[in-house]
């Protein structure tokens, strides 16, 4: 069982930056691939990025490539999402998730956090 808690969301102006954190409980964090997804009001949950269990590989949605980056610190049981050059269309609730393989499919993740709101003003 893994429990995930996101933090770091907030209100930022377009062009600004935020860093989201996702803290995990449990001793098996380092065995899970981690993903970030986001969901805007009235829309489906969309893939943002994923990172392998070791942190050696990452993958991103085209809409955030070059602006967002993921990292993880397995000693701290935490995964991060650095978001730069934010745009109003990045406004959403951001969720972290833990699964057995890095994937862009939300069905491949077993555990989810409660989400953190990111709002980007124009």
Short description:
The protein is mostly beta strands and 122 residues long. 0% of the residues lie in helices and 51% in strands. It is built from no helices and 11 strands.
| DSSP helical segment count | 0
Helical percentage? under 10%
| Overall shape | globular
The biggest sheet amounts to: 7 strands, mixed
Mean model confidence by pLDDT: 96
How many runs of DSSP E, i.e. beta strands? 11
Helix/strand-derived category reads mainly beta
Walk me through the structure:
This protein has 122 residues and is mainly beta. The chain is built from no helices and eleven strands. The chain has strands at residues 4-7, 10-13, 18-24, 33-39, 45-51, 58-60, 68-73, 78-83, 92-99, 109-112, 116-121. Strands 2, 4, 5, 6, 9, 10 and 11 form a seven-stranded mixed sheet that branches. It has a four-stranded antiparallel sheet with strand order 1-3-8-7, with no helix packed on it. β4 and β5 form a beta hairpin. The protein is globular, with a radius of gyration of 13 Å.
Topology, element by element:
Blueprint: E1 4-7, E2 10-13, E3 18-24, E4 33-39, E5 45-51, E6 58-60, E7 68-73, E8 78-83, E9 92-99, E10 109-112, E11 116-121
Parallel strand pairs: 2-11
Antiparallel strand pairs: 1-3, 3-8, 4-5, 4-9, 5-6, 7-8, 9-10, 9-11
Which descriptors would you attach to this protein?
single chain, 7-stranded mixed β-sheet, 51% strand, 4-stranded antiparallel β-sheet, mainly beta, 0% helix, 122 residues
């Amino acid at each position: 069982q893994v429990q995930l808690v996101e933090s770091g969301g907030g209100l930022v102006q377009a062009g600004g930056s935020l860093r989201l954190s996702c803290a995990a409980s449990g001793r098996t964090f380092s065995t899970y691939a981690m993903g970030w997804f986001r969901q805007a009001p009235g829309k489906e949950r969309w893939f943002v990025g994923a990172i392998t269990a070791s942190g050696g590989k990452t993958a991103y949605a085209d809409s955030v490539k070059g602006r967002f980056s993921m990292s993880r610190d397995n000693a701290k049981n935490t995964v991060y999402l650095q978001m730069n050059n934010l745009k109003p269309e990045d406004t959403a609730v951001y969720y972290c998730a833990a699964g057995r393989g890095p994937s862009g499919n939300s069905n491949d993740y077993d555990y989810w956090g409660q989400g953190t709101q990111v709002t980007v003003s124009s």
